[in-house]
User: Fold these one by one.
Assistant:
Number 1:
Amino acid sequence: MALIDIEVFKFAFNNLRRMQLRSLLTILGIVIGIAAIVALISVGEGLNQSVADQFAQLGTDTIMVLPGSGIFESIVAKLSEEDVKTIENVRGVDFAAALYLATVQVEFEGEKQSIVAIGIDPEKIGKLGFIGIANVEEGRILTKHDAGAVIIGSNFGEKAMKKDIGLRQNLEIGGKKFRVVGILEEAQNQFGAMFNTAIAMNSDELKEASGTELTPFRIIVEALPGENLDDLKQRISDELERKHGKKDFQVMGLEQIAAIAESVIGLISLVLIGIAAISLLVGGIGIMNTMLMAVMERTTEIGAMKAIGATTHKILSIFIVESGMIGLGGGIIGLLLGIGAANVLSIIAELSGIPLKAVASPWLIIGALAFSMAVGMIAGVYPAKRAASIDPVEALRYE
């Protein structure tokens, strides 16, 4: 004979139908918990996929050199223009480009805004377009002969200055006039996105406009085709360490940066899922409370079932199945709400220009339903044992 036969399911289902309102109220905790967990995991998976796709767009031959060997050291450690020359002399390097970053005061038609400006050697910005970071859509790139020329990001006028800015218009930066000679196409990858609402200009002119001594905040390195990236990273690291006298920098391939980004996303998701799991705990306690009340209300009924031959195992099975059904019902509703919420967040992100597609894998769906049912069944164990232990003679006398 099966451990739980079909009659047990029918009996449990009919009992739940009789207490519809209480069953619905009981599953709220399960619904909220499962919905939150499903939404967070779906969005987290979508973010990981988005990060992987963005890095794939940049290819596999790009290396980033950042100041500092750790989070805290990166605040005080510095790279230099000399580091660029050192890297370009390393065997296997196609080119190296230093990026400078500063906030400058920009004025256009009477409007003043503090804007992020990116400084770069004009001869290198075209090479950044080659690896998919800064492609010019209108106009032209900067050249080494340019003076007082800038390129603006695709969304610079709309989002940074709140005005439409086109080619050949003038901006005032640091009290000096600059002419817009190019507009970048909207970048979809993580590194190119910083250009979307920024100004790109000659690094020497940016240093002058900012009034501060700037150092590169990162150096982008492109390897020659067919070069072993791990070997090249080691050669770059060795040369920079020899020049600096210590390892106060990081040489990272895009796959390492992607792995770090994914681990950060995973850690944040784990913390949020842990918080959402509290709702499941509350839901489990609610189920236990409901089932205990059901045991008290149905004491006479339990006694009658035992009197006509229902075994302890049968009574135990009925109450565990009932609590499992409550958990499963909450899981189904929570799963649908969670997937819906994740898709809404995905749409909002897409409208904001952030490529994000929620991913609800079959394993997530199966796992959510199995987990919610397990929470319900575990919560029903104690009430089930209590029901199964009732003496039939005493139960029939119970009022």
Note: The mean pLDDT is 78.
Number 2:
Amino acid sequence: MPALNNESAVKTQYASSANLSTRMSIHAKYSTNKQGFGNWITAHYPVSAGMSVLELGCGTGAAWLNQREIIDACSRIILTDFSEGMLAKAKDTLKLYSNIEYAVVDIQHIPYANRSFDLIIANMMLYHVPDIPRALLEVRRVLREGGTFCCATYGENGIMEYLAGLFQEYGVSEKANYTFTLQNGRQQLQAYFDTVERYDYEDSLEVTDVNDLADYIFSLTGMSSLRALPRETIIKVLNAASVHGVLKVPKEYGLFLSC
């Protein structure tokens, strides 16, 4: 999909949690790696007692639902998002946790003092940021010495590329936004952090009801040429690509830990 390099486009896409929930549900239902991407990410957080945590782009907050041990260990957790609607959903999702703070924050203008946080999280969101260098400079500023910046992202050989190839004969050529990926993220991070480590999450989809994948496609803001196709055409192509009732779709996700 084309890059979302302006604030209004991002706000429109994430004004509510509906589209994001649709995209998350297909992963929950059909992923072959049953650990779950969110659980895998959380397992990489370097948690220690009394630490201060800032998440930028928290989305629905679902990744924190079963993380009471981490939440209780922290002296302060601030979950932020660029979208007021998404932040409202996160507050509702995590209403049982009384020690989490919430704020609307733009990663390009983080409203906190220098060296405020031991762990800063920005998962699956840097590719939406208009000015990534400014964002990373802000993260570096508010991260304490010895702290860790965790940012998950996708690669350039995943779902969008698969779908573009599948529908190529219908004129679909759009692919994902490649401004921050597993392939180019390390180089960008190394300009601001001394150590950058990449970790890959092994996974794929095995879809048994292509209607769910069609819903996923129509939840996207990008890939407009694919979304312009009639639903029955999309279903026909997805069914034709299935083998014994299963459509196997590659995924490429991972994260960087930077210090």
Note: Residues 7-157+175-204+252-258 form a domain with the Rossmann fold fold (CATH 3.40.50.150).
